[in-house]
Specification:
The chain is α/β, with parallel strands linked by helices. About 20% of the residues lie in helices and about 25% in strands. It contains seven helices and 13 strands. The longest helix is centred in the middle third of the chain and has 13 residues. It starts with a strand and ends in a 7-residue tail after the last helix.
Length: about 270
């Protein structure tokens, strides 16, 4: 049991030795009374106590990697991971191409999430539905405003992809525990500022210089990022969360290329 001592150290305590041990005789030579621990297995070897000062406590950490969907390669060639399956509501806005949204949907489904696509162009998603077993294996397509409650839970997380054009209506199904929502905008539309304010994460692909200037004010982007946005290559996305920014290149697998083609900004 871990306790805090008056001196400010953390110690790993151990039970005090019992007064009577079943394997030791008492003063009269008779076996002692059995300890209450006797029904819980043998008492292990005794070790010295270990302590660490409060100042050293922060150094005790385990190198646990991120858990989520690999959305591409970030700086220094390291995988960039997006944690979509969360116990709290999570809204993502992607100002970019359909290709990137579809890759994210495929990879989310591969991690065990159910993907519900709300779209006004179902023909653009039908090939994915067929490739994944006709909607029986994690991906279903619905008309705009027709997404039913998904019943998300820790065991069956859900990603709702809203592909509803420049002015997506307010969705019937919103983000919630274990249910994230990804809204795709092909360009910086009039409803983008509202969606950006509500989002926890914003992804931006190649846009015009005027859009970059407007988005730079909305996201408080540094001038170098504003100047870079109109020049981004296909498949390259600037992801922004609070004050964190990261450029990520989405590199498709052979299977994704066979299904969706090569990266592209325009559809």
């Amino acid at each position: 049991m871990t306790t805090t001592t008056p001196r400010g150290t953390i110690t790993s305590g151990e039970p005090e030795p019992s007064a009577g041990r079943p394997d030791q005789p008492g003063r009269s030579g008779q076996p002692g009374r059995r300890s209450p621990r006797s029904g819980f297995g043998l008492i292990g070897p005794r070790h010295g106590r270990h302590s660490v000062s409060v100042d050293q406590l922060a150094a005790l950490a385990l190198p646990i990697g991120d858990d989520g969907v690999v959305i591409g390669v970030g700086g220094e060639g390291r995988p960039a991971v997006l944690g979509i399956n969360r116990p709290t509501p999570y809204d993502v806005v992607l100002i970019g191409g359909l290709w990137t949204a579809q890759v994210l949907a495929l990879r989310a489904a591969a991690t065990g999430a159910r993907v519900a696509v709300e779209t006004g162009r179902p023909q653009a998603w039908v090939q994915m539905v067929h490739a994944m077993g006709g909607g029986q294996n994690g991906l279903a397509v619905y008309e705009v405003g027709r997404v039913p409650p998904q019943g998300a839970s820790a065991g069956t997380p859900v990603l709702v992809v809203r592909d509803c054009g420049m002015r997506p209506p307010r969705g019937r199904v919103s983000s919630g525990p274990w249910q994230s929502v990804l809204t795709l905008l092909p360009y910086l539309s009039p409803v983008a500022p509202r969606l950006i304010r509500q989002a926890r994460l914003v992804g931006v692909q190649r846009i015009s210089p005027d859009e970059a200037a407007e988005l730079g004010r909305a996201l408080a982007l540094p001038r170098p990022d504003v100047e870079t946005l109109p020049t981004l290559a296909d498949g390259l996305t600037l992801w922004c969360a609070d004050r964190d920014r990261q450029y990520v290149m989405t590199q498709p697998t052979d299977a994704e290329i066979g299904l969706l083609g090569t990266p592209r900004r325009m559809d």
